[in-house]
Amino acid sequence: MKNLFASLFILLLSIEGTAQSVKFNNPIIKDQYTGDPAALVYKDKVYLYAGHDEAPNDFNFYKMNEWVVYSSSDMKKWESHPVPLKVTDFKWAKSDAWASQVIERNGKFYWFVTVEHGTIPGKAIGVAVSDSPIGPFKDALGKALITNDMTKYTDISWDDIDPTVYIDTDGQAYLFWGNTACHYAKLKENMTEIDGEIHHIDLPHYTEAPWIHKHKDWYYLSYAYEFPEKIAYAMSKSINGPWEFKGILNELAGNSNTNHQSIIDFKGQSYFIYHNGASIPHGGSFRRSVCVDKLFYNKDGTMKRVVMTSEGIQ
Ligand code: FUB
């Protein structure tokens, strides 16, 4: 009997030890609230770009004036860099550092951002450029690339948000964006001009936050589905579609009505990067935090549903 109690005691101690050694790595950014993550793999690092959620605790909407950047070599330790871009860097814009994405082309880094236009009513998309992934960035055009009057698919003034950019294997660059309607267009090689018509893609319960990525020989278009948002996705063998809807990829965050995702492969592992309203200490829909979890594919190329964890990347 004595021996049984002794073994039980040792077992309890080892369980306790295991529990204590688990680290909660999510959210990955803990020094400030951040939303709308967009990751860029460049050389042997991941650069994480996000909007800075500055809303006070009792504020019921977004307060966002700047974008921030962090970098990591292992997806666990994140280095913070000085603020590389603000709404005020776009003289024609008046507010709202909403969702964005950075892409590299020929050694230059192009940051496609959402802002509120100063004179053309509605949201708009601008482009900033830098020689370094951590900036500083400057307005590449001196005017918006996309304005609300260029897209007629919906009447709302906030449909021209959430740019995602992809350069296909043949060198052709594409811009996808939109709230309520998913728009896409080709970009010229200079990355600062639309080339040809703006198209529209029909996707079930499309809300916003498109993200294009490729894995093996499939193209994936993931997006925020319904509101409050889940993340769903469609797949195609061509970036020009047709896109086949494949269902939900990530469930409701629960503590934030948006979830905005970014998907990358880095050093042989796929990652799902997103935000939620995790408490650091007063998180919520307008005080969001960026998290990372692993992403896995099935043999047929479909993606396994994401499991959001507190542990994150160990
Ligand atoms: O951060 C402001 C807006 O919230 C983004 O543009 C949307 O994607 C949603 O996350």
From TrEMBL:
<comment type="similarity">
    <text>Belongs to the glycosyl hydrolase 43 family.</text>
</comment>
<dbReference type="InterPro" id="IPR052176">
    <property type="entry name" value="Glycosyl_Hydrlase_43_Enz"/>
</dbReference>
<dbReference type="InterPro" id="IPR006710">
    <property type="entry name" value="Glyco_hydro_43"/>
</dbReference>
<keyword id="KW-0858">Xylan degradation</keyword>
<feature type="signal peptide">
    <location>
        <begin position="1"/>
        <end position="19"/>
    </location>
</feature>
<keyword id="KW-0119">Carbohydrate metabolism</keyword>
<dbReference type="GO" id="GO:0045493">
    <property type="term" value="P:xylan catabolic process"/>
</dbReference>
<keyword id="KW-0732">Signal</keyword>
<dbReference type="InterPro" id="IPR023296">
    <property type="entry name" value="Glyco_hydro_beta-prop_sf"/>
</dbReference>
<keyword id="KW-0624">Polysaccharide degradation</keyword>
<keyword id="KW-0326">Glycosidase</keyword>
<feature type="site" description="Important for catalytic activity, responsible for pKa modulation of the active site Glu and correct orientation of both the proton donor and substrate">
    <location>
        <position position="162"/>
    </location>
</feature>
<dbReference type="GO" id="GO:0004553">
    <property type="term" value="F:hydrolase activity, hydrolyzing O-glycosyl compounds"/>
</dbReference>
<dbReference type="Pfam" id="PF04616">
    <property type="entry name" value="Glyco_hydro_43"/>
</dbReference>
<protein>
    <submittedName>
        <fullName>Family 43 glycosylhydrolase</fullName>
    </submittedName>
</protein>
<keyword id="KW-0378">Hydrolase</keyword>
